[in-house]
Specification:
The complex is a heterodimer. By secondary structure, chain A is an all-alpha fold. Chain A is built from 13 helices and no strands. The chains are: A mainly alpha, B mainly alpha.
Chain lengths: ~325, ~300
């Protein structure tokens, strides 16, 4: 969702490397393409912060079984106050570190649920985005490179998909297909690819007019060969940036669906679902809303920071403008 | 100008056909049986079959689709299975609320986002810019429904300034509009800053300043109108997300708008109501897009007279 992404003339990532050189072509004594990107990224403190947060959240999700103090779905008898209400952090009530972030309305440990919730968020975020980037790149590049009638057909289809209110379309799809983890991933991927298709389409339109394409064609190369060997490598920076920024959006979409009660179904802990439950208790037990929300925000924030940093590193002409 | 408008409306027709077709396909392959939902769980198989026939649900896809579109074009959007009220009546009764929420949200987006973005661009690299952009990035990252609940907790419960939900008076609109708009405000601030920086670096702004115009005059008179252009484009692309996000805000504040109607329809497999709400909101998206294009044409003569 960034204007610089949509205008091919303002993003000349291809100019980063020598004409037509694909990432990975290294001359002796030179820094590789990705080495160069990594060097730039390392100097960017906010991007590194984002990267570290992403690593931290991923580790938390991966090692949730080891890190979580309790089973996320165990309902503790001492997890509720005597009158059956959720308990605030036991650190505040001298109860020690038994429930560090308090409990929910079923007497379950909030910290454990948040740690396990990271698994759902990341799995959905990453896989749905992989699907969206794949679909978007495929449709955008085919439409941009092969021209009519495929171009009109595919891009009009993209327009139609973009005209649906995103969340409503996702809701309708999930409701029809019955919510489970794989359906959620599929649906989010299917509503999100349009953005990437637009961006890729714009870039391919500009790329196909470039001299190196004409030259390769003059040498007798087929169109599919040019697309796969010469156009697609030029899209690698875009794919990397959207592969990161898109995860942020998809984590948010998953949380929104779960909040509406049509995401990953209980008892599997998901951050959006936790907030949905917390909504009924927000006056007396605000921690039930605050902590899962912070987890969503931190995750989305981390991927946004990293994605912005990657964009700057991949295209230094845009550095600092966003 | 009129040709631009006419062209955009013509372009919208295939998009609308596509939308209705896709929605209809989704409904057609719905695993839940709408006739059964309509008849209720205690109805006999014969009753369900009779209802299926009466509703035309036993007809082939294309017959159902063309019949439906034909009726929609004549203003007959069918009756809600659940409520037994005309879909158009249900939708129209909710439109004012959703419209109020959308306009309030957009007002918050622009009233906060644009000034912050301009200030940030002018103060580029200084601490005000850094703080502003950091806060904006946090704002972009916060889930709107969570922000809404926090606002409710602080300004509805702890400090009871605003009502805890529902609709009815302008006071009821404040927190929902803030919730709908804050994320977008953060986003527009980032976009506006980026767009302003591009324009501030152009030759004509430098020329304006070289001619002796004061810095702020140069910024406001020369840079701002040009910097707004990409922002308007972004607004057009933001609309599907924004209208989708309104669903969440309506849920948080118990706001009686279209989004809640759509959610209810989806949850109860109320086919005519699902079709009606999804197609109606998509119509809103498409026409907002046209409106944005027209505004852009008014602002930018290059678009008005150009080929694109």
């Amino acid at each position: 969702m960034d204007i610089t992404q949509l205008d091919p003339h303002r993003r000349r990532v291809a100019d980063l490397s020598p004409e037509g050189a694909s990432p990975g072509a290294i001359a002796p004594g030179e820094v590789s393409y990705f080495g160069l990107i990594w060097r730039r990224l390392r100097r960017d403190r906010t991007a590194m912060l984002g990267g570290m947060l992403v690593a931290l959240i991923s580790l938390a999700a991966l090692f949730a079984p080891a890190l979580a103090p309790h089973d996320p779905s165990e309902q503790f008898r001492d997890g509720l106050t005597p009158d059956g209400q959720p308990m605030p952090s036991t650190l505040l009530t001298d109860g020690g570190a038994r429930f560090p972030l308090g409990t929910d309305a079923n007497g379950r440990d909030l910290l454990s649920r948040i740690l396990y919730g990271a698994q759902v968020s990341l799995i959905v975020g990453v896989l749905a985005n992989t699907l969206a980037v794949t679909l978007g790149t495929l449709i955008g590049s085919v439409a941009g490179f092969f021209g009519d009638p495929l171009e009109t057909l595919l891009m009009r289809f993209t327009d139609v998909m973009m005209a649906f209110p995103t969340l409503l379309l996702a809701m309708a799809l999930v409701a029809i297909l019955k919510p489970n983890l794989w359906i959620i991933i599929l649906v989010i991927g299917v509503v999100y690819w349009t953005w990437i298709a637009r961006v890729v389409y714009g870039q391919v339109l500009a790329l196909r007019e470039r001299d190196f394409v004409t030259a390769t064609r003059a040498l007798g190369a087929g169109r599919l060969f040019i697309l796969v060997r010469h156009i697609l490598p030029q899209l690698v920076p875009t794919i990397i940036v959207w592969g990161t920024l898109g995860i942020a959006t998809n984590v948010m979409l998953e949380a929104s669906l779960s909040y509406l009660g049509i995401g990953v179904q209980p008892p599997t802990p998901s951050w959006g679902g936790m907030i949905q439950q917390g909504q009924s208790y927000y006056r007396t037990a605000p921690w039930m809303v605050i902590f899962p929300g912070l987890a969503i925000m931190l995750t989305v924030f981390a991927f946004n920071l990293l994605g912005d940093g990657l964009r700057d590193a991949l295209d230094p002409t845009q550095r600092g403008t966003l | 100008m009129w040709t631009l408008l006419a062209r955009r409306i013509l372009q919208a027709i295939p998009v609308l056909i596509g939308i209705s077709l896709i929605t209809f396909v989704l409904i057609y392959y719905l695993p839940a049986d709408p006739a059964r939902m309509y008849a209720g769980p205690s109805a006999t198989v014969d009753t369900v079959a009779r209802i299926r026939h009466e509703l035309g649900l036993d007809q082939p896809f294309w017959v159902q689709y063309t019949r439906y579109i034909g009726r929609v074009l004549q203003g007959d959007w069918g009756f809600s299975y659940r409520k037994q009220i005309a879909v158009t009546e249900l939708i129209l009764s909710r439109v004012p609320y959703t419209l109020a929420l959308i306009l309030g949200g957009i007002f918050v987006e622009l009233a906060i986002g644009l000034p912050v973005g301009i200030a940030s661009a002018v103060a580029r690299g200084r601490w005000a810019d850094r703080v502003g952009m950091f806060v904006a990035l946090i704002g972009v990252s916060a889930p709107p429904f969570w922000l809404g609940l926090l606002l409710l907790y602080w300004f509805g419960y702890l400090i009871p300034i605003f009502p805890l939900g529902g609709a009815g008076s302008p006071v009821h609109l404040v927190l929902p509009a803030l919730t709908a708009g804050l994320g977008g405000a953060a986003w527009y601030a980032r976009m506006m800053r980026s767009s302003m920086l591009d324009i501030l670096a152009t030759d004509y702004v430098r020329t304006a300043r070289a001619k002796g115009r004061a810095y702020f005059a140069a910024v406001l008179r020369h840079a701002l109108p040009n910097a707004l252009n990409p922002i308007i484009t972004m607004a057009g692309m933001d609309i599907p997300w924004f209208i989708g996000g309104v669903v969440l805000v309506e849920r948080v504040f118990n706001w009686p708008g279209l989004g809640r109607l759509a959610v209810e329809a989806i949850e109860t497999v109320d086919v005519p109501l699902i079709l009606g709400t999804v197609i109606f909101t998509s119509l809103m998206v498409v026409f907002s897009g046209i409106l944005i294009d027209v505004v852009q044409g008014l602002v930018d003569p290059r678009i008005r007279y150009g080929q694109h």
